[in-house]
Specification:
The complex is a heterodimer. By secondary structure, chain A is of the alpha+beta class. Chain A has 13 helices and 24 strands. Chain A folds into two domains: 105 residues, Rieske Iron-sulfur Protein (3-layer Sandwich), CATH 2.102.10; 251 residues, Alpha-Beta Complex (Naphthalene 1,2-dioxygenase Alpha Subunit, Chain A, domain 1), CATH 3.90.380. Chain B has one domain: Nuclear Transport Factor 2, Chain: A (Roll), CATH 3.10.450.50. In chain B, strands 2-1-6-5-4-3 form a six-stranded mixed sheet. Classes of the chains: A alpha+beta, B alpha+beta. Chain B: One of its GO terms (biological process) is 3-phenylpropionate catabolic process.
Chain lengths: 425, 161
C-alpha cells in the first residue's frame, strides 16, 4: 500500500536544469523503466511506414522500444499494430520478419488469430465448450488501441486515450510535408530494407546527437576531408544554417539558408540537375517549373521526431531502446516515388554512410558508446548544454532557433522530456 | 585430386591466408593492392541472398569506395578504429568451387576475434572470392562476406572483414 497521496509524482528538477543534465539520466535503470512507461508505452511512437505493408494482409515485424509489434494491413486495408504474444501461454504467433497472411497460428497449441488480432478458433474446441471464461472475444492478441498515420508514417500508442497524432507532431508535421514533396508523386517509400546497428549506449545520447550540429566538423572530419564533401561547411562556424526546437521534443537542423544562398537545384544532395534529367523533368511536370526549382533547392529535412523517428535528408533512422545502456538504430534509404534515378543514388549513399560499417555512423556510434562510458564516471556529475543560449531567438513562427552548431535541440528535448516524464497520465 | 588441383588449392590458400593477415594487422595499403581495378566488396544484411542493387547491405563498395574507405583510415580520425581493434582470425574450409583460365571462385570460413574498449566480439563469416590469376598469385575481383548473424542487429564493424 502506498504511503503517499501522489504515488506517481516524479520531480526531475534535481536531474534536468535548463542548460545542464545530470549524468545519471543516461545510466539510471529505474529512470529507464519510467521512460518506458511514460514515453514509450504512453505517448505516440513511430512504428513503420505504410509502404512496408503495401497489400492487403501484408505484415512486417516492428517494435516500440523493447516490445515487438506486428504491423499488419488487414483484409479491409486498415493498418493494425499487434503484439506477438498468444493470450493462451504467451508463445509467439509470428516468427517471420515479413510476409502476407490473413491469420497467425500459434505453433504451441494452434490457436489462430486474424490479422486484426481477433481469435478465430481454438484447436480441439470441445475442451472449452460451456466454459464462460473461454470467450473468444476476450482472448485476442494484444492490439495497440491507437494507430494514426501522417504522410505514410505510422505511429502507435499503447494508451487508449491521449493527444492526437496531429497534436503530438505540432509544427514538426511540416517537415514531413517537405520530405514527401521531394517526390514527383508526393510520396516516399521505405522498401530498401534496414541496417540494424547495435550500440552500448542510452537511447537519449542518440536522440540528442541527431540534431547536434556541433559534432560533424570533428566526428566526421575524416570522411569530409577525403570524400570532397561540402557538408562540413554547413556545420562550420560561418554557417547560416539553423537549429530549431519545434516543441514536443521535435528538433531540426534547417540547412535551407545555406542551400538558398547557393541557389542551385539538387546541391542539397551533392549533385546537379544535369545528372538527374528524368527526375528534374518529373518534378517540373508535377509542380510547375518555379515550385519544382524551389523544392529542389531546399532539399529534404534533417529532423528528429520525438522519441524515435529521425529523418536525415536521405535516410530514415528508427531509435529502439533495448535497455538503459543498449540501443538499436534501424536505418534505411528513403525512396521517392516516381524518381528511380534519384533512388539509386539514395541507396548507394546510404549504404556508404550508415549501418555498422558506415563511413559516418560507425564514428557516431563510437561516440555514443564513449558518451555512455563517460556518463558512468562519477565526476563532473553534470553535462553542460548551454551552447548558444545567449544568442538563441524566436523565428517568424515562434519556434526557438539558433546557429547550426548551437544546442537549441538538446535543450528543447530535455524541456519536453521533463514535461512528459513528470506528467501523471 | 590432380597435382595441378593441389597446386591451385595451395596457391589460393596462400592468398587467403595472406589477406587474413593483412586485415588482422591493419595493413591497409597492402590489402587494397589485392583488389583488381573493378573490384567489388559486398557484405549483405538480412540474409545471404538479397539483391544489393535494391536492398541495404552492410558494405557494397565499388573499387572507388574501397579506396575511400582506406583513405578514411589513413586520416587517423576514423574514430571507430582509433584506437584500432585488436584482431585475430582463423580461416579454414577453403575450397575451390570453379576454376578456369580467367578466374577462380573459392570459399572459406572465418572466425574473427575482435577486442575493443566496448567488449570482445566474435564474428563468424562465410567468404566467397572471385580471384583473377596474376602470375603465381591472384587479385580479388569480388569478395562477398556472409556474416552468420547478418539478420541481427550488429555492433559497429569498422575493421576490414
Amino acid at each position: 500500500m502506498s504511503i503517499t497521496t501522489e504515488p506517481n509524482k516524479l520531480d526531475l528538477s534535481h536531474l534536468v536544469q535548463g542548460n545542464r543534465v545530470h549524468g545519471s539520466v543516461y545510466t539510471d535503470e529505474a529512470l529507464f523503466q519510467l521512460e518506458l512507461e511514460r514515453i514509450w508505452y504512453r505517448g505516440w511512437v513511430y512504428v513503420g511506414h505504410e509502404s512496408e505493408v503495401p497489400n492487403k494482409n501484408d505484415f512486417v515485424m516492428k517494435s516500440i522500444g523493447p516490445q515487438p509489434v506486428i504491423m499488419t494491413r488487414d483484409n479491409g486495408g486498415e493498418i493494425r499494430l499487434l503484439q506477438n504474444r498468444c493470450p493462451h501461454r504467451g508463445n509467439q504467433v509470428c516468427l517471420k520478419e515479413k510476409g502476407n497472411t490473413r491469420a497467425f497460428t500459434c505453433p504451441y497449441h494452434s490457436w489462430t488469430f486474424s490479422n486484426t488480432g481477433d481469435l478465430i478458433g481454438f484447436a480441439f474446441p470441445d475442451g472449452y465448450r460451456d466454459n464462460p471464461d473461454a470467450d473468444k472475444k476476450r482472448l485476442g492478441l494484444g492490439v495497440l488501441p491507437r494507430v494514426e498515420s501522417y504522410q505514410g508514417f505510422v505511429f502507435g500508442s499503447f494508451a487508449a486515450e491521449g493527444i492526437s497524432l496531429a497534436e503530438h507532431l505540432g509544427g514538426a508535421a511540416e517537415t514531413l510535408d517537405r520530405l514527401v514533396q521531394t517526390s514527383p508523386d508526393g510520396k516516399i517509400e521505405l522498401t530498401a530494407g534496414y541496417l540494424k546497428h547495435r550500440a552500448r549506449t542510452n537511447w537519449k545520447f542518440i536522440l540528442e546527437n541527431e540534431c547536434d550540429g556541433y559534432h560533424p566538423a570533428f566526428v566526421h572530419s575524416s570522411i569530409f576531408s577525403v570524400a570532397d564533401s561540402a557538408i562540413g561547411t554547413y556545420y562550420g562556424d560561418q554557417s547560416t544554417a539553423l537549429t530549431r526546437d519545434y516543441g514536443g521534443g521535435h528538433t531540426e537542423v534547417d540547412l535551407r539558408p545555406e542551400f538558398r544562398k547557393a541557389d542551385i537545384p539538387l546541391r542539397w544532395f551533392g549533385t546537379t540537375a544535369e545528372r538527374l534529367p528524368a527526375y528534374v523533368e518529373a518534378m517540373n511536370t508535377a509542380y510547375g517549373k518555379e515550385k519544382a526549382r524551389q523544392i529542389m533547392i531546399d532539399g529534404t529535412p534533417h529532423v528528429m521526431i520525438f522519441p524515435n523517428l529521425f529523418i536525415a535528408e536521405i535516410q530514415v533512422f528508427v531509435i529502439q531502446p533495448i535497455s538503459v545502456n543498449e540501443t538499436i538504430q534501424h536505418a534505411t534509404a528513403i525512396q521517392f516515388k516516381g524518381a528511380p534515378d534519384l533512388n539509386r543514388r539514395m541507396r548507394q549513399q546510404t549504404m556508404g554512410s550508415v549501418g555498422p560499417a558506415g563511413l559516418l555512423l560507425a564514428d557516431d556510434t563510437e561516440m555514443y558508446e564513449r558518451n555512455q562510458r563517460g556518463a558512468e564516471s562519477l565526476t563532473p556529475a553534470w553535462l553542460f548544454l548551454g551552447r548558444g543560449e545567449q544568442r538563441e531567438r524566436r523565428d517568424e513562427n515562434g519556434y526557438m532557433v539558433g546557429h547550426s552548431t548551437d544546442e537549441v535541440p538538446s535543450r528543447g528535448i530535455w524541456r519536453h522530456y521533463t514535461q512528459v516524464m513528470e506528467a501523471q497520465s | 585430386m590432380s597435382a595441378a588441383d593441389i597446386d591451385l588449392l595451395h596457391r589460393v590458400t596462400a592468398f587467403i591466408y595472406r589477406e587474413a593477415k593483412l586485415q588482422d594487422e591493419h595493413q591497409y595499403d597492402d590489402w587494397e593492392a589485392l583488389w583488381t581495378d573493378d573490384g567489388v566488396y559486398w557484405i549483405p544484411a538480412n540474409g545471404d541472398d538479397i539483391d544489393p542493387e535494391k536492398e541495404m547491405s552492410i558494405i557494397f563498395d565499388n573499387r572507388s569506395r574501397i579506396a575511400l574507405r582506406i583513405r578514411q583510415f589513413h586520416t587517423g580520425k576514423r574514430h571507430a578504429q582509433s584506437p584500432r581493434s585488436r584482431l585475430r582470425r582463423v580461416v579454414s574450409n577453403i575450397e575451390i568451387a570453379e576454376s578456369s583460365e580467367t578466374g577462380i571462385r573459392a570459399f572459406s570460413n572465418a572466425l574473427i576475434f575482435e577486442s575493443t574498449v566496448r567488449a570482445d566480439t566474435v564474428w563468424s563469416t562465410r567468404n566467397e572470392y572471385f580471384l583473377r590469376p596474376e602470375g603465381e598469385t591472384f587479385r580479388m575481383a569480388r569478395k562477398n562476406v556472409f556474416l552468420t548473424n547478418n539478420d541481427r542487429a550488429l555492433f559497429t564493424l569498422s575493421f576490414l572483414v
